[in-house]
Automatic annotation (TrEMBL):
A motif (VHIID) lies at residues 119-123. It comes from Salix suchowensis. Residues 16-29 have a biased composition (Basic and acidic residues). Belongs to the GRAS family. It comes from the Eukaryota. This is Scarecrow-like protein 18. Residues 167-199 are annotated as: Leucine repeat II (LRII). InterPro entries: TF_GRAS. PANTHER family: OSJNBA0084A10.13 PROTEIN-RELATED. Keywords: Nucleus, Transcription, Transcription regulation. Residues 308-356 are annotated as: SAW.
Length: 356
């Protein structure tokens, strides 16, 4: 049944509507998440067209309506110590890094035969070494189950800060001692992350013993070497394969942040980091100091690099899985049978559990 309105009711409704319009004019509503995204895309489009004055106007609107405590759409945007602290926070509050470490460790365990007397792991960019205590524990438990002596474990950890490397080695040594594992840590300072320099430097910098089973660990590392072509990365991988490792573990972000066109790269990054921030939002409250630090310092550094850096200056060049498979296959590395993580062995493809 349709209701009827008196003249006074219509007048009252009209006056109320006028007052709401006046209030909205005096106090405009903040943009919704959808509008914020559209503003970001419009701003990036103007930058791609070199219309910086118009882009600056859009950016002022974004700045006035965003907050570091907002949701994943609003948070759009160092110190090495802060980065290391954020890495530990990221490892604690999300499963991303832990999953990479867990599956890489499983691949290493499966590639090392029970009864192997010595294991040597080369870990590129070891940072705090949080990947290795679970592997040490697994080696100790496997030895107890088989009633054999645990292997001697040697880790060569690379990094750009010798003090951090020494502290990492001390922590790992104490943990290995608590498990009764024979352990040795060798810090390898790599100040130059240029793949060509590394490829020439590695053979003389790394000592390999004949009785050791070698594993090379590249977790969230190789994407830094991707440039407009893959020649330098291929040279580095050829040198790694020449070391004759039992296994090479590779874990990388599933994303496409290497497009030379700014706008396309921006759109890919916007979708990728929106999903990441959504996951943080579901885990921690907006006012969490850990969440704020991870978003602003760790992911903020990545976003700045992907969006603002051009040419040789850009380090964060994440690629899709298919691209990594093609690159690794081209140097003769073969996919192993561990499907939970794409791992690659340096053995003859005919001997690999699963080859391309």
């Amino acid at each position: 049944m349709l209701g009827s309105w008196s003249q006074s009711q219509l007048m009252s409704s009209s006056n109320s509507h006028d007052r709401r319009e006046e209030e909205e004019t005096d106090h405009p509503r903040p943009p919704t998440a959808f509008h914020m995204r559209q503003l970001l895309v419009s701003c990036a489009d103007l930058i791609s067209q070199s219309d910086y004055s118009a882009a600056k106007r859009f950016f002022s609107i974004l700045s006035s309506n965003s907050s570091p405590y907002g949701d994943s759409t609003e948070s759009y945007e160092s110190d090495q110590e802060a980065l290391r602290s954020c890495y530990l926070s990221l490892n604690k509050i999300t499963p991303f890094i832990r999953f990479c470490h867990l599956t890489a460790n499983q691949a290493i365990l499966e590639s090392i035969q029970v009864g192997q007397e010595a294991i040597h792991i080369i870990d590129f960019d070891i940072m705090h070494g949080v990947q290795w205590p679970p592997l040490m524990q697994a080696l100790a438990e496997r030895s107890n189950d088989t009633l054999q002596s645990p292997p001697m474990l040697r880790i060569t950890g690379t990094g750009q800060d010798l003090n951090v490397l020494h502290r990492t080695g001390e922590r790992l040594s104490k943990f290995a001692q608590s498990l009764g594992l024979r352990f040795h840590f060798h810090p390898l300072l790599l100040l130059n992350n240029d793949p060509t320099s590394l490829a020439l430097y590695l053979p003389s910098a790394i000592t390999l013993l004949p009785d050791e089973a070698l594993a090379v660990n590249c977790v969230l590392y190789l994407h830094r070497f991707l440039k407009d072509d893959s020649r330098e990365l291929l040279l580095f991988l050829h040198k790694i394969k020449a070391l004759n490792p039992r296994v090479v573990t590779v874990a990388e972000r599933e994303a496409n942040h290497s497009n030379p066109l700014f706008l396309q790269r921006f759109l890919e990054a916007l979708d990728h980091y929106t999903a990441l921030f959504d996951s943080l939002e579901a885990t921690l409250p907006p006012t969490s100091r850990e969440r704020l630090a991870v978003e602003q310092v760790w992911f903020g550094r990545e976003i700045m690099d992907i969006v603002a850096a051009e040419g040789e200056g850009r380090r964060e060049r994440h690629q899709k899985l298919e691209t990594w498979e093609m690159i690794l296959k081209s140097v003769g590395l073969c996919q192993s049978s561990l499907e939970s993580l794409r791992t690659f062995t340096g053995q003859d493809p005919a001997k690999a559990p699963l080859s391309f």
